[in-house]
Structures are given as structure tokens and as C-alpha cells.
Amino acid sequence: MLRVERRVATAAAIASQGIGGARKERTRQRPRACWLGVPATMMKFLLMVNKQGQTRLAQYFDFKSIEERSALEAEIIRKCLSRTEMQCSFMEHRGLKVVYRRYASLYFIVGFEEGEENELGMLEFIHALVETLDKYFENVCELDIMFNLERAHFIVDEMVMNGCIVDTNKLSVLKPVALLDRIKA
Amino acid sequence: MSCRLSDLITEVRACKTAEAERARITDECAQIRNALREEAGGKRRGRVGATPFRERNMLKLMFAHMMGHSTHWAQMECVKMSASPSFHEKRVGYLGLMLLLDESASVLTLVTHQLSRDLQDESPFVNSLALATLANIASADMARDLHRHVERHLASGPPLTRKKAALTCIRLFKSAPELIDDFIPRVVGLLTDRTHATIMTGTTLMWHMARMKPAVIPRFSKAVPHLAKLLRKLVVSTNVPNYTIGRVCDPFLQSRLLSLLRVLGRDNSVASEQMNDVLAQVATHTDASRVAGNAILYDAVQCILEIESEEGLRILAINILGRFLLNKENNIRYVALNTLCHIVDKDLPAVARHRTTIVACLRDADSSIRRRALDLVYALTDSTNILSMAGEMVNYAVIAEKDERAAVCARVASAARRFAPSMRWEADTLLVLIAVRGEAARRDVVRRLIYLVTAAPGDDTQASLAHKCAEMLSENSSSPDCQAPLLLIAAWCIGEFAAELTSDPPPLPEGPDDSVIPVGPRGRARTPKELVDVLGSLLTHHKAGTEIKGVTLTALSKLLAKIPPAQLPADVVETARGHLATFQTSLNQELQARSVEFLALSSEDLADVRADILAPIPALTADAVRRLKWESSAAAEAAGGDEDVIAGLSDDVDDDEGRAGGTGLAAGMRAMEATGATADDQQANRAATKTAEAVDDEGSLLDLFGGGPSASPPADADEDLGADGGVADLFGPGPAAGGAATAAAAASSGAGAPASGAPAMGGGAAGLNLDALFAAGPGAIAAPATHAPSPATLHPHMGGGPGAAPAAGAFAPVPAPAAAPPSAFPEEEAFSFGPLRVTLQLRLDPADSTSAVVTMRAYRSPAAPAGPISGIVLESAVAKYMRQAFSPPSGSTIPDGAPGPVQRDVRVTNPQRGTKPFKVMLRVQCVPAGGTKAVHKADVTGALPQV
To answer: Is B175 in Cβ contact with A36 (below 8 Å)?
Structure first.
């Protein structure tokens, strides 16, 4: 209901002010999304997206609406796909620094604010994450992550909290996850 | 019956279209929602017991959420699941909370209680789960309620909870900063933990605390020796199982330690001293063959450059960056450029040493690297290397990706403007830039180029620039990538310099300037027929919008006036008239009006006034450009439509050329308004420039004599039919002419409706225009007194038309002051000159402490011979850092026997009041009875009370 009203308002604004006025209106209406007003932390998001642009895992560390998420994922994967092997693994997107690394058909993508993180360190972190997943799933592939979404999330949760790296030691990361499996079994 | 997550995923994957996928997921969501509702209903009816598919449903919801479906209705279910006694359900419930929660804080309050219980649970796994959730979702209230439990876990406990408690604290502190102080002792204690993960999260926490509250840094600096010891241990230890990556021991921990040291060592020489050794060790002992090693070196370099490190260490760091830059791997080069970008404003010489490498990166295949390199190249540009750097940047503009082009153009234009060795060079560079990437450039680049061309010293320079433009146009116009702004500039140049284009381009200037002109086409002599054909082709060019068409129409009509009739064959004139007639039936009203007007103007009947109307545009002064900017931004604000003020500015150029061509006034008129000067006043301009040069440093005066409205007040109506008269005649008799001029002035400043000139064209119908009515109609009685102050400050040409000023003089002998009566100083005598005695009175504006109103008064001096003193003109000029705005004078004649005075207000603004004086010069003209015109100039800074 609210959304419809807003759209009508925008149309009215266009009618009364012309395109320029409407543009201003729109930018004003979009507040900076921020989780409960708390400034975001180091990593902003961690994505696993395949080459077809389908998201396989998405973890955001600051609040984004569903529309913003889909748009962001689509834009970033499009940028990633347009880059060649030879190009570096860093790009800038909407003021954020994006580090990505491709493993087979899956892109691992991390976004953070400029100057908050070491880009090369992030690259190495992605690798550590992949190695951990690999150890758990034994030769991990896209399907493993897709069908075991919750396990993948458990592992990511043990490695990253609120955008900061918790641990990179495979053994201590996998211990709580293994425990869960034992309870379940 | 509910399917499993894997079944759902398989089904979704099997869907042929995205639409089908969405439908399947929506369907599943609906089922889950029903299940949740039934469950709630069952609970109400007293049925208890485990509901079978809760966990499965939650997982499916997370999948749906990831696929972009709204799941906010399931948040309550997450809360319920997190309270489940089963650890697995609890785990899934908390995961759901972390993923599915949106900004509604209502659910959060419900979670607080559960979290509090789980934080106190016996099992460390449950504790760690609660800590992780808290770290992701804590609000300020939760932070205040739960921080005691977190503190307990932070103080002691197994590594599993301790490491997480540290990161949870970050979130708590961000939500409730007042908690920071209580935690400091506990936080430092984390560093003595034995596990890497705890030390790492502890370091991260300290880093965040230092950033959130810099006051804690001194308390942390005691830990620097300990941090250094930890780091040294990591550097020398080679093989720690599970932590060694790429022959480096725990690069993540090392990286965090280095970041923390960087914060602690900043502006702290003691701490810096303590870490010098270990930093040197890191820089020399780290294996740079893998990514992990390079990551640490990168952090170490940043740390060294930021703290107060020793000279030798800095050199080491810069050398490491140099090695990075030469690395084959793009990632490494990227971080090197990134670091250089950070230090470029602190340590320019160090960066400048790598200039050649950086410039080479501008041609890299990788756009991320090119972008970083561009930043650096721009930062490194100065007047010694502008020639090569600008060339590189223009080359880069050609290959830049679409979203970077605007940035590149802005950089080139700004660098060219700041460091150009000559105006000619800047004009050439901008021209090349506009030819290759004009569409990405901001409009003020086009504006700047036009200014440079009109202000170019000497006719030769202008002519050769015009030739170059024309040549570039013919090279590019047929290419699909032709840039619209080039068309605009070329059309304008052909119109303005048609006569020059028919002769050969002037030889290149010799001497030192020779080397700094970018190579480009020189052009050749063109026949009038060629020029007309080129303009004709622009009218139908695929990139030509209304604006370019308008400029082209103006150019065509100017061309007919500029080229001597002897050189214009009749058939060329006919072709040109044919082109002019193109838009006679256009649906675009502006174009149509212009078409008809210019066609009429090109007919034989109006041949005698054509030259006047289509006179060349006088050189724009920097001041005029600035004033145009000011006005158009004010106008844009008033109009409220234009978002971009700068874009608004650039419209003025077009106003000069095309759109205000739309006001029905031809170019000569527009030129007058643009500079606020008539041909006569231009001479005054030059004279004043000379005076200005003669004065001292600050004496390079801003408002040159004759600029702005001071050009306006001619002695009486008979005399002022000089250059203006011809134009004025066109529009009808006397007062209407003034009205038209004013209307045009208003229109040119963007405030008036574009159509306002059209009725004026009709002949004396200026009354239709409100502004014109104010200035020239009977309403003029009220106009100058009430209306003058604001327009006079905002639009200095207002009331500047030939008819308007006398009218103002006649009806309003004493113009009202601009604002509430400012506190006045006594009237001071400035000087006596011929038959006149000139006084000055300064009144401060109470509303604006930086500005004051100076009233100039000219009295008949006691020694003056009898008879009227006519032609009195009072003008002032101010130093460059000041601004001035005139009000109309009270008159120009002191009748026989009367003591005077003739007076005029000028509002001077000195934004640097206090540091620099009000520096004002006066120029007074008069014609004593029976004498000839006399002019006197004087610096009156001394006569003003310096306040």
C-alpha cells in the first residue's frame, strides 16, 4: 500500500516539476540503509555466485532490503564475468571495494569499505574459506554448497562474525559443525 | 506433507523459466506459511508436542530468502526455534534470525531473553551460538542488557567462546559506545591468550575500539612491546600446523597486528620506536613469493609509512612498493598503486620516483589498475610535466570504459587549467579532449574552451584555433563516434570566424611556445561554399540536437554577415538561406522562431543593420565568465528545475550562442549583455586594464571599468545612440528599446522566459514583458527605487539598457539603499577634479559584515565655472578579492547653479575583511560647460574608513 502511494507521488512530482525535480525526489526518498543505525563493520557482504549469476550463498553484514540485495548481486556478478583471468581480483563498486576469486564455476565475492581491509588478505581469506569447505565436503563443488546451504552457512558463521574474521584454523572451525552432524545422526 | 530442502532445490533447478522458478518458490512459501499458522492454532487448542517439519521449513525459507523472496512473516518462527531444547533446531533458529531479520526491532526484544539464557548455558557451543547471533543483530538496548554476560565470556572460558566474545564486543560498542571504558582491562588481557584466534579477535577488537574512541589509544600503547613480541614470534616461526599458509605463519593474525600497530604508532614517537625493529624484520624476512607473504608486506609498508618510522625503514618500504609495481601479477601491482594513492599527498617525491612505471600502468589491460593509475597520474601532474601527463591522460580518455570517462575528462580539464603553460595550449588540449570524449566531459569544459577562444591573445591564435576546429569537424563528423560538443564548438567557431576561415591558417607561432602546442590538424583555407555546406550538414547531423541546430542557425546568419559580399556568390547565399529556412515549419518553437528571424535578417532590406547585429562577440573576461556562472546558478535556483548548478552554468554558453539567440536578439546584442559592455566600453575596458596593470599587486582589479552596469549610464539620450542605437532602432522607438534591452538582459541571465524577446522583435511591444515594463514603461517610477536593489546586485546588467538608466535617473533621484539602513560613517572628501568635488560615504551592512555600501557623490566644486556640468559618470573598481555591484546613478548632469550632487551607490563585498583592506579605485568623467570631456582616476582606498 505504501509503495503504491509513493509511486503515485513520484508521478505527480514528475507532472508538476519536470524530470529534474522528479530525480531529486527519488534520491531524497532513498535513505542510507543501515542496520538499526549502527555503522557497518569491515566486511559488508560475502557472496557465492555461479557463472550463470545464480546466488548460491549470501551473507550480508549490514542491512539491505531484498531489492537492493538482488540488484547488488546482479551488478557485481555481471562485472565479475566481464573480467578476464588476467585482470586483477579487485574492483570498485558503488564506493565499496570488491574482492572476488573464481573456483571452477563459482565466484566467491567479498565486499568491504575502502581502507578497512587488506585486499590481498581478503583474497587469502577466500582461499582459506574454500579450503575449509573443501575439507568438510571433501572436494567441494557448487552442488555441495547449494544442497547443504545450512552447513555452508554454519561454516561461514564460524569463520566470519559481523564482518570480522573469527578463525581460519580448519580444525577449530569444523569442530562445532561436526558436532551438529553427530547430534543429527 | 513438506518436501525436503534438496527436493525443493532440485525442483527449482528443473524449472524452465525464471517465472516458473518464482511460482514454485511462492507456492512453497505459501505452504510453509499455512503450516506455521496451523501449528499456532494447534498450540492454542492445547495440543503440545514437537512439530515435525519446523527445521526443514526454516531451511527452505532461507533458500527462498536467498532467491529474493520476502520472508519477514517467518521471523517469529525463528525466535520460537531459537528457544527449542534441541541444539540442532536452536542452531537453525539462530541462523534464521541472522539471515531473515529486517529492520523491525520488535522481534529483537523477544530474542533478548532467549539470548540471555543461552549466554548463561553450560554448553560452550550454545554460548558461542548466542554470542555469534548477538554479534550480528545486537541493538543498543540488547547491548546494555547483555554486556555483563559477554564480559564474563571475554574474561575466561574456552577459546571457542572467548574469540567470539571479542568480536561480539565490537558490535556492542558500536551500538552502545559508553560501554568501551569498562572493557579496556579485559581487552588487553586477550592478548595473553594462547590461541591464535583469540589473539586475532582481540587485536581486531582493539583496532575497532581505537577507531571508535581515539581516547583509548594511549591506554593501549602500553601493549605495543607485547604486540611487537607476538609479531616477531610469528615472523621467525616457520611451520605451525593449521596456521601456516604459503610458508607464512598465520598471515591473518600478522595482518591484524600490523593494522593495530599502525593505529597505535601514528603520531606517537615512543610507540613507533618500539616497533621499528620488528617492522624491519617483517619487511626483510617475509617470503614474497606467495600472496600471503605479499599481503603482510603490504600491511607492513602501510604501517611503516603511517607511523613515525626511521628514515631507513621508509626507504625500505618505498623500495618494496617499487618491487610491487614491477611485479607481473596484477593484484600486487594494484595494491602498490593503491598504497601510493594513499601516501601521495604526504610523500610526493617518493611517489614521483615511480612516475614512469605509473604512467605505464595507465596503458594496462586491466581497468582496475588503470583507474588507480589515473588517480596517481593526476596527483603527480605539475607544471613541469603537464605536457606529457596531459597527453597520457587524453590517450587514456580514448580507451577508458564508459563509467570512467567523465572522471578522466574532469581530470584532464582540471590539470590543463591549473598547469597550462599557455592559454593556447590549454585551448588545444581541451579541443582534442572534446573531439575524442566530449560527450563525457562536463558542460563547463565546453564553456571554458569557448572562453579561451574568445579571450585568445591575437587574431592569429583565434584564427588558427578556428581552423583546427573546422578541420577536426570535417575529420570526425562522419564517424559514428562523433562527439556532439565538438559539433557545437565547430559550428560556433565557423560562425564567429567565418572570414578568417576563408584564408589560409596563420603560421604556427615561433619561439618557446612552439613546442608546447599539441600536434593536430592545421586546417586549410575554405571557400564560403564549403563552410555553408558544412553548416548545412550539421543541421541534419545524427548527433545534432536542438541546441546544436540553434547554434548552427546563428552561425549561418553570422557567416553571411562576416564574409564580404564580394566573396559570396549568389548561389551560396541562396543555399545558406535555404538552410536557414529549414526550420521554418519546425515543431520546435525556438528553432522555428530563429529560422524565421534569421531569414528575415538575411534579406536585403535589413542589410544596413546586419553588421551591427551580427558583430563579433567581444572577448569574455574572466570576470564576465564568473559573473555568468553566478547569475545562472542563481537563476537555476530560482527556476528550481535544474539540479546541477554547473550544468546550469554551462547553459549560459549556449545562451550566448544558441538559445538566447532565441530571445530574438542577434549576436551583437547578446555579446553586449554577456559582457555588459558596448563597443565604447570595451575601449574603456582596455584603458582600465592598463590602469589596473599600473597599480600594485592587488591592483589587478576585478571589476574592470566599464564592466557591468557601469557601462550603462550615458550622459543623455542623444549621445547614447552610438553602437547601441543601431540595434535599438530595430526594435522600435525610444523607451521600448530600453525595455527590449532589459528584457534581453533578463533573458540572458536565465531568468526571463526565452520567448520574451520575440514580442520585442515585433516592434515596441516590450510592454508585454514584465521586466521591460519595470525598466522602461511608466512603472519605472517605482521600479528603480523598489526593484533596483535586488536586480542590481543579482543581475548587474539589469536596468543597464540605453533607455533604462536615464529613466531611472529622472524618476528616482535617490535610489533606495540595498538593505536596511546600514550604520553610516561620515561623508569624506575623496578628491577634487576639474569642476567637481567627489565625496565618499561608507555604510556598513548590518546584515552582512563583509559588505558595505559606498555612496559616491559628485558636487559642484566652489571654484567651478558657471554652467551645467554634464556627462558625469561615477565608476569604481575593486581589488581582485572583492566584489562589487552597482546601483543606477541618480543622474548625469548638475544643472547650472545647482550644487549637486550626482550620486551613485556601489555595494562592495570583501569576503576577506579583517585580513585585507577595502581597496577601491574611482574613475570620474564629466563634461564641464563649454569644455571637453575630462576623465580622472584615483585610488581612494585611503579615503575610506578601514573597518
So the answer is: yes
Domain that holds residue A68: 40-180
Q: Is residue A47, in this structure, part of any structural domain at all?
A: yes
Cα A66–chain centre separation: 12
**Closest partner residue to A120 among B163, B295, B642, by Cβ?**
B295
**CB within 8 Å: A180 and B132:** no
- CA pair distance A165, A61, nearest whole angstrom: 12
Q: Is the pLDDT of residue A109 over 90?
A: yes
C-alpha cell at B798: 539589469
Buried b (16+ CB within 10 A) or exposed e, B594-620: bbbbbbebbeeeeeebbebbbbbbbbb
Total domains in chain A come to 1
Task: Provide the mean pLDDT of chain B.
Answer: 73
Could you identify the residue written with the cell 613507533?
A: B272
Pairing of strands A106-113, A43-50: antiparallel
Residue-by-residue DSSP string for B76-127: HHHHHHHT-SSHHHHHHHHHHHHHH--S-THHHHHHHHHHHHHHT-S-HHHH
Query: Which candidate in A116, A118, A156 is best for mutational testing of the B interface (most B CBs within 10 A)?
Result: A118
Nine-digit cell string for B567: 566573396
Query: B901: cis peptide before it, omega within 30°?
Result: yes
3-state secondary structure of B721: coil
Over the stretch B371-392, which tens digit does the pLDDT of each residue have?
888 888 888 888 888 888 888 8
**Residue A141 domain-assigned?**
yes
Chain B residue with Cα closest to A84: B366
- pLDDT grade for B753, boundaries at 50, 70 and 90: very low
Paired with B922 in beta bridges are B876, B938
In chain B, which residues have their Cβ closer than 8 Å to the Cβ of A86? 330, 365-366
pLDDT at B231 over 80: yes
A151 part of a folded domain: yes
B132: nearest CB among A150, A161, A165 = A161
The larger pLDDT score, comparing residue B797 to residue B454, is at: B454
Question: CA of B311 to nearest chain A CA: how many angstroms apart?
Answer: 24
Is B371 in Cβ contact with A92 (below 8 Å)?
A: yes
**Dist CA B722 CA B762 (whole Å):** 22
Per-residue H/E/C for B766-802: HHHCHHHHHHHCHHHHHHHHHHCHHHHHHCCCCCCCC
Q: What is the pLDDT of residue B679?
A: 38
Chain A residue nearest residue B205, CA to CA: A164
Query: How confident is the model over B269-283, as pLDDT tens digits?
Result: 888 888 888 888 888
- For residue B69, name the pLDDT band (cuts at 50, 70, 90): confident
Residue type, A60: Y
CB contact under 8 Å between A180 and B295, yes or no, is no
Instruction: Say whether pLDDT at B672 is over 80.
Output: no
> Domain with A157 in it: what CATH number?
3.30.450.60
Tens digits of per-residue pLDDT, B813-856?
333 344 444 466 777 777 887 788 888 887 777 777 777 888 88
Query: Would A4 be classed as within a structural domain?
Result: no
* Residue to test with chain A: of B102, B368, B372, most A Cβ within 10 A: B368
Contact between residue B647 and residue B536 where contact means Cβ atoms under 8 Å apart: no
Phi, psi of B456 (to 5 degrees): -60, 135
ipTM comes to 0.78
> In 3-state terms, what secondary structure has residue B492?
helix
Domains, chain B, in order of start with CATH, read 622-678+722-811 (no CATH), 823-943 (2.60.40.1230)
Separation of first and last alpha carbons in chain A: 47
